[in-house]
C-alpha cells in the first residue's frame, strides 16, 4: 500500500488552497464585470455588457490603449536597437572592467524599480520631460535595455566565432557579415527579447506611474487610478477595466510562450550543423 508523507500532503494542500482562492478571486471579478448590480446573493440577478461600454467611455480606454501600444512598441524597438549591439560587444570583446559593466547592467533588473525610479523621475521632472510620452518611454528603457543585453549575450556566445572568421577570410565586410550571417542567427533571440520586453513594459507600473501625465497614462496606471482616485465609480466598470487589462496580459503571455522559448532557441543555435 502506497504511503503518503505528511509534508507532501501539507504542501499539496497549501497549493490547492492557494489555487482555489486565486480562481475564486478571478471569477468574482469577471462575473462582477458583467453584472448590472450584485448585492447579498451568490450570483448577480441581471447581466449586461454595458459595464464594458461604461468603462470604455468613463476611463478613456481608447486613448489609454493607444498610449500603451505606442510606449510598448517604442521601448521594444529602441531596446533591441541599443541592446543587441551592446550584447554583441560584451559577448565578443574582452576589455577592462567588463565584469563591473555587466554588474551595472544587472542592477536595474535585480533591484526594485522604485529604488531608482524616484531619483530618475526627479531628473526627468527637472528637465521637463516627465509627464510626456517621451518621459514614459525613457523611464521604461532603463530596465529594458539591460534586459535585452542579458537575454542576447548568452545567445550570441553560442554562435561559433569561426563562422565570422571564415566569412572575413572569404572577403566579406563587417556589414555583410551582420546582415547575412549574424543577423539571421540572432532573429530568434531578438524575437524572444522583444516579446519579453513587451510583456514587461505593458505590466510596468512603478516607473510609469512616477512620470506619467494626463496624456501619457498606460493601461496598468489607468487601472490603479480608476481604483484609488477620488470620486464615485461603478465597481463593475472598474472590474471590466481589470478584465481588459488581464486579458491583454494573458494574450501577450500566451503568444510569448507559444512562439518563444529562449532555452530551446539557444540549444538550436548550439546544435546548428557546421559545414
UniProtKB/TrEMBL annotation:
It comes from the Bacteria. Residues 65-256 form the ABC transmembrane type-1 domain. It holds the Pfam family BPD_transp_1. The chain crosses the membrane at residues 9-39, 59-88, 100-121, 133-156, 177-199, 242-260. Keywords: Cell inner membrane, Cell membrane, Membrane, Transmembrane, Transmembrane helix, Transport. It is found in: Cell inner membrane; Cell membrane. SUPFAM superfamilies: MetI-like (SSF161098). Its main location: membrane. It is a multi-pass membrane protein. Belongs to the binding-protein-dependent transport system permease family. This is ABC transporter permease.
Amino acid at each position: 500500500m502506497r504511503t503518503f508523507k505528511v509534508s507532501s500532503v501539507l504542501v499539496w494542500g497549501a497549493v490547492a488552497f492557494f489555487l482555489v482562492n486565486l480562481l475564486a478571486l478571478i471569477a468574482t471579478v469577471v462575473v462582477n464585470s458583467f453584472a448590472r448590480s450584485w448585492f447579498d446573493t451568490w450570483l448577480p440577478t441581471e447581466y449586461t455588457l454595458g459595464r464594458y461600454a461604461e468603462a470604455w467611455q468613463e476611463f478613456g480606454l481608447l486613448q489609454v490603449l493607444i498610449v500603451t501600444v505606442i510606449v510598448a512598441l517604442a521601448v521594444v524597438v529602441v531596446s533591441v536597437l541599443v541592446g543587441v549591439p551592446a550584447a554583441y560587444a560584451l559577448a565578443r570583446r574582452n576589455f577592462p572592467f567588463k565584469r563591473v559593466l555587466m554588474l551595472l547592467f544587472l542592477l536595474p533588473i535585480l533591484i526594485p524599480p522604485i529604488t531608482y525610479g524616484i531619483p530618475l523621475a526627479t531628473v526627468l521632472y527637472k528637465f521637463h520631460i516627465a509627464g510626456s510620452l517621451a518621459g514614459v518611454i525613457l523611464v521604461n528603457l532603463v530596465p529594458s535595455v539591460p534586459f535585452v543585453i542579458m537575454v542576447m549575450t548568452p545567445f550570441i556566445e553560442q554562435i561559433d566565432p569561426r563562422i565570422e572568421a571564415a566569412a572575413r577570410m572569404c572577403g566579406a565586410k563587417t556589414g555583410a557579415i551582420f546582415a547575412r550571417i549574424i543577423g539571421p542567427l540572432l532573429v530568434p533571440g531578438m524575437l524572444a527579447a522583444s516579446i519579453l520586453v513587451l510583456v514587461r513594459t505593458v505590466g510596468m507600473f512603478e516607473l510609469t506611474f512616477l512620470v506619467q501625465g494626463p496624456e501619457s497614462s498606460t493601461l496598468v496606471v489607468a487601472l490603479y487610478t480608476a481604483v484609488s482616485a477620488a470620486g464615485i465609480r461603478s465597481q463593475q466598470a472598474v472590474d471590466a477595466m481589470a478584465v481588459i487589462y488581464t486579458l491583454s496580459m494573458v494574450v501577450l503571455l500566451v503568444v510569448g510562450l507559444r512562439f518563444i522559448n529562449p532555452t530551446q532557441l539557444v540549444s538550436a543555435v548550439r546544435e546548428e550543423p557546421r559545414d
